[in-house]
Model the fold of this input.
Amino acid sequence: MVSLMWFKQDLRTDDNPALQAAMQHAECVPVYCLDPRWFVPDGRGLVRCGARRAQFLLESLVDLKRSLRLAGSDLLVLSGEPEQLLPALCAALGVAVIHTHEEHAPDEQALLARLGRSLPEQVELKAEAGNGLFDPTQLPFALDQLPGVFTRFRNKIEKQPPAHLPLGRPAAFAPLPAAALEHVQAIPSLQDLGLEVVAVEPRTALPAGGGETAGRAWMDDYLWGSRAVRHYKDTRNQLLGRYFSSKLSPWLAHGCLSPRRIVEELRAHEQGHGANDSTYWLWFELLWREFFRLSLRVHGVAFFRHGGLAGGAPPRGNDQRWIDWREGRTGQPFVDACLRELNASGFMSNRGRQIAASYLVHELQQDWRLGASWFEQQLVDYDVASNWGNWAYIAGVGHDPRGGRAFNVAMQAQRHDPEGTYVATWLK
Done:
């Protein structure tokens, strides 16, 4: 029997339940679809995936392809809409079942549904759980009873380990069917995707390189080499430097690392070197990520509405002020430095994201969804649930019990950049 493994935000061989299932068949076709809709500008001139994130994605695909080839398989990287490409590929290769991971976001769920309707009757589509920390069926509450406030969620779940230990790599990799070899092609370039080539940004705090190999190397360095995790709580709101935060988010967003693997390594670190407030705080932030994932699954399209989960929020603007904000030309040096860093590198610190978002919403009185969309285009570590959940939180239409967070930019700059070093770095 021939199976197809459809990779999406799970670009790894380790702890990949869908890949494990697909490799149980006699032959398996690993495939990734570069959807051209990600790179077509919308009415505002924005794309869903900008050049920096696309570059990280392509690097991750190169790494995954290399890993699969070393294991006796390969990766087909195809350009086109999955609901059209995959049925044709299944028909051509005699595929009996497609394995992939389930989705939490409405657009991606709709894509899965369209694919299911377009497949030949004899082809089964299996969407596996396992791309998050917890299996929703094993939560200490029904999914529709998800607490509306993070603290209540954390209190219910933080003592509970992930539902399953990481799976590791498949023991054996099924070969690629001979008929699939004619579909193997080179991984496209940024130019092929209609995007400009991005230069290396020497000022960025992000470690270099997309892919599972680079992600594992950085995780090992952060937890075991530098042991920077041991001061994470104290440094996580800093703005410059390699080790002020975990920087694991790009590999998590693309699925090059699984959150369960990170937790497993974190627990091993605690056993070897002792737990402290900082190791707990990394676990705390992973719980925030999981909370937003589950919330997106529960609330669906409400995540993206102007009124968010609260509904009925007063309208906000959409004018030149938002253009100035995204270009880093507001005249507020600290905010402008944050946006210049984002636009030049595809990254911004957590503290910078909060301050920039607050300024757009509360000072400039602009629609929070404009900022969320800009982050979607620009961020290397864009994650749909975390991005939109955090923006709604700041705007007061999400899970914040206090009705939004307005930051005093001058006070934040004095606290986090007292010497003006960060501003000077990015406003050169």
Summary: Residues 277-299 form the longest helix (23 residues). The chain has a mean pLDDT of 93. The first strand starts at residue 2 and ends at 7. The chain has three domains: 2-131, 212-300, 305-426.
